[in-house]
Amino acid sequence: MDKNEKFSKKSSSRASKNTSEGIKRIEYRGDYVRISKTGGVAGRASVSNKKLGMGATVNTKHGSRLHKRLWNGARVGFQKGRFQFIGRYGKGPFKINQSKKGFSFSTSNYFGSYNFLKPQYSSFKISGFHVRGQTAQNLQLVVLLITGIFNLIVYSARAIYVIAWLLAHIIFFTARISWSILIFLKHLIQGFIQGFRDIPD
C-alpha cells in the first residue's frame, strides 16, 4: 500500500467522522409514535409500576428497554444488552445530571434544556418537534439570552423599588426625628427664657 492510498483512507475516515458529528437530530414525539430525521419512523409503547419503581418500553426500531428506579432521580436499565444509568438531581430550573460517563450541569425551560458542560447534549422542542446538537445549542442560547435580559429588567425594577421604598422611609423617619428634636429644643429654650424672666430682681 503506497502513501497515496494511506492518505486517501485517512481523509475518508476523517470526512465520515466529521459528517457523523455534524448530524442534527430533528424529531416528533407522540404518545405511540416517534418520527426523527436520523431514525425514521418508529412505534413505541410503555408500561410502568410506580409502587415497584419498574417500567418497560417496547420500540419497533430499538427493541425493548427495562428500567428500575434506584432512588429519587436515578434509575438503571437495559436496552439491547447495554447497561444504562441515568440520574437527575435538583429542584427548580437547574439540574445535576449523572451518567456512566460522569456528571454535567444543565438548566431546563419551556423549550427544553441547555447543558453547560456538554452543550452538544442540549435539546430544544416546540410543537412536538425535538432538535438536538448545534442547532439546539444555538436556540437555547437565544432563549437564555432573552430570559436573562427579561429577568435582569424585572429584578432591577424590583431592586429600584425596594431601594426607593427604603430611602423614602429613611428620609421620613429622619424628618420626624429632626422635627421632634427641633420642637424639644424650642421648648427647652422657651423654658430657659421663661425661667430667667421669672427670676425676681
Features:
disordered N terminus, 12 strands, 201 residues, single chain, alpha+beta, 42% helix, 12-stranded antiparallel beta barrel
Overall pLDDT score: 76
Order of helices and strands: HEEEEEEEEEEEEH
Content-based structural category:
alpha+beta
User: What is the count of helical runs?
Assistant: 2
Number of strands: 12
Apparent shape: elongated
Range of strand content: 35-45%
The main pleated sheet reads as: 12 strands, antiparallel, barrel
Walk me through what this model shows.
The chain has about 200 residues and is α+β, with helices and mostly antiparallel strands. It has a domain at about 90-185. Helices cover about 40% and strands about 35% of the residues. The protein is built from two helices and twelve strands. It has a twelve-stranded antiparallel β-barrel with strand order 1-2-3-4-5-6-7-8-9-10-11-12. The longest helix is centred in the C-terminal third of the chain and has 65 residues, at about 135-200. It is elongated and about 115 Å long. The model is unreliable at about 1-25 (pLDDT under 50).
Give the gist of this structure.
With 201 residues, this protein is α+β, with helices and mostly antiparallel strands.
Q: Topology, please?
A:
Elements: H1 3-21, E1 26-29, E2 33-36, E3 40-49, E4 54-59, E5 63-71, E6 74-79, E7 82-89, E8 94-99, E9 102-109, E10 112-115, E11 123-126, E12 129-132, H2 134-198
Antiparallel strand pairs: 1-2, 1-12, 2-3, 3-4, 4-5, 5-6, 6-7, 7-8, 8-9, 9-10, 10-11, 11-12
